[in-house]
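TICKET #2291
ISSUE: user wants both folds in one file
ATTACHMENT 1:
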Amino acid sequence: MIDIMVKWTDFVIVGAGPYGLSLAAHLSVRGVDFQIFGSPMAVWRSHMPSGMHLKSEGFASDIFDPLRLNRLRDFCRRHGHAYADVGVPIPVEVFHAYGREFQQRLLPDLDTRHVARITASQGGFLLRLDDGEIIRARRVVIAVGITHYAYLPPELRGLPPQFVSHTSESRGMKDPAGRKILVLGGGSSAVDSAGLLHQAGADVEIVTRRPKIWFNHPPDHKRGLELAYARLLKPRSGLGLGWRSRMASDLPTVFHRMPEPFRLRVTRGHLGPAAGWVSRTLVEGKVPIRINLALKHALVRGEKVAVTFVKSDGGEEEMVADHVVAGTGYRVDINRLDFLDETIRARISEIQNTPRLTRFFESSVPGLYFVGPSAANSFGPLLRFAWGAKFTSKHLTPHFAR
């Protein structure tokens, strides 16, 4: 028998977005033996439409290091980008560049290889990298973000790829000018994609089953006592304005102790689909918006795609286009994490296809942790946003350092 050389490490982070980078920066300062794998800020580089702006305000778009010396405001000042804590939209390209600089400054040894497979092993896990190398780790944190969870409605799944795409793929759409494109959905990704496709010369319509499209309110310009009173009624947090958002932002460990039905209801219902305030200018008066139309089915007809919708009165309406973009969001489902071996996935206790986690983010598989959107049903809507990386890294680092 030939012995295979296997590298050992105590701890592996899979994913190099805001959660993975923030946690790694904290662990590095504490001297924890770990490795982090993944392409830095890959979601923001490859899966967000070029020209998009972040929905979050500047102060809520940081990646976190323990000394807070690498904030977004510091990056923007060094490189001459416009910045304000509130009121100046952040281009996705600036956020991506900020994340790359954060990684190069604080985590120069990050390994950009991808983890192709994770299997259980005595005392931990075996991780096979995309070049075939094997790493053995005692503990693994899954910090992969949303890319694995893009949701395409079943009515669209049978269409050939030249006729349908998800908004996470819209950066790869070639030559949209002059094409008739239907964008389905009423949230931020749908509105942003529609506005940017319109700017590129496409003939775009937004179609949503909702009765309207909600836009976040632009920042107000109150001062003095007027501002103090407004903030008393609606305090600001990294998730937006209001006491519910403030509590979700400040009390995730309390949320974790709440009854499961309550947690699921709040996570599902709070901060639902809405477009950022800057997105309104991309579509208002420029892109037709059709409301109260529920998707029924779609089929290819010649060189076009015909999409049938059910109207609120029960009737049907067909629309014909060159392409359909699904701005239908993301649904966490750990069964879509195909790099996790089936035997591991089968052992994970689930809540609506998401992992049921301890107060330190550990799943029912000892040594396997989930952070970011995968943890939202356990810790609340905070974990759906980059702002949640602050709580996560500060909360987990002492646990892992022990």
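ATTACHMENT 2:
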Amino acid sequence: MLTRRTALLSAVAATALSAVSARTASATPRAGSAAGPVRLTLPAPGGPHPVGTVSLRLVDTARADPWTTAQPYRELMISIRYPARDAGGHPRAPQMLPGEAAGFTAVNNLADVPADKVDWAATRTHAHEDAPADRDHGPYPVVCYSPGTGDPRSLGTTLCDDLASRGYVVVMLDHTYDATAVQFPGGRVEHTVLPAEYDKAYPDKKRIRALLKKTIDVRVADTRFLLDALPRALPRALRGTLDLDRVGMFGHSAGGFTALQTMHDDRRIAAGANMDGVVAYVPDDGDSGHLSTVAAEGLDRPFLLLGKDGNDLSTVPSWNALWRHSRGPREGLTLCGAEHATFTDEEALIPQIARRLGLPRATVVKNIGTITPARAIPVERACLASFFDRRLHGREVAGPSATAPEVRPFGR
């Protein structure tokens, strides 16, 4: 039986181990651990293009905010990653702004990791602020990214920067009042309300399922508004670089659910990838019933399911339903040795924190599994790039399953 806290982590994210934690993670570093706040680095992208970035505020005046009565409109933040012509003289963007870093310190999904020992605002990405776009090779296909529930958009930086370096414009979306903290221009910060919403629903299972559905419905509406708003919201320097006739989407956990549900509801999404997100309103991956419409009706366009170790069609009923009901091309892969958070920046960051703070290996494995970053990150990048290359670029490229022993196609 799930404890209340475990149920919160599972239910709100619509996956067994995704996260909204209403506590600051705490642990006592062992002798020899770092004295000051730990500073972290992210792996460099693997593609041929340098990466530029710009952040934008979007306002949906046609929709009242569904999470707070104080605001009669829905307000979002996005980051756009794009192939740059030249990154010289343009600083590397931070992974998290100060208000976002403080929010992530206070509310996060790190198991047995002392988040307050890390300087989250110090991490720099490999995307350069306002770098000029490379127009010679565009326009580029567009791929939207949605993070797991409770996670900031910045926790998908490793994969998003890599896709941009390979010739995609990647739009990273924060779901306000869902993400730990969203910082808007001027420094205002809006924090997650989901722990409080779950406290209101608990222990009524029907109300918990309603909260799960609301969470996904809001995310889908956010994404569809993003697609509406993006053409007119683009700064002049990026206009003409996006091919909005070739749009894909991917996400982690509830973000993967969001990607496929948006694809079901909106034909502008031509291909979608779901990294370890169930597609039903259930508190655990292995629970049956309470299917979403994408699982119950399927898809007629290409999608990829990428699961942690143990997650495949035989163990995740909602994936099985989606697979059976779909008519379009479908691909399914299990990443052996992976945990739920392997598909986020935690894969790169947790081992660094553990080394600096003297955390036990069990803590690393609990968060990101047994697969090492040196293996997991290249395989994840290859899975996404080969999928979108084939489905959006029309390139005939082989996926990583034939050469990477860590990747097991569904059914094998």
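RESOLUTION: both attachments delivered.
EXTRA DETAIL ON ATTACHMENT 2: DSSP finds eleven helices and 13 strands in the chain.
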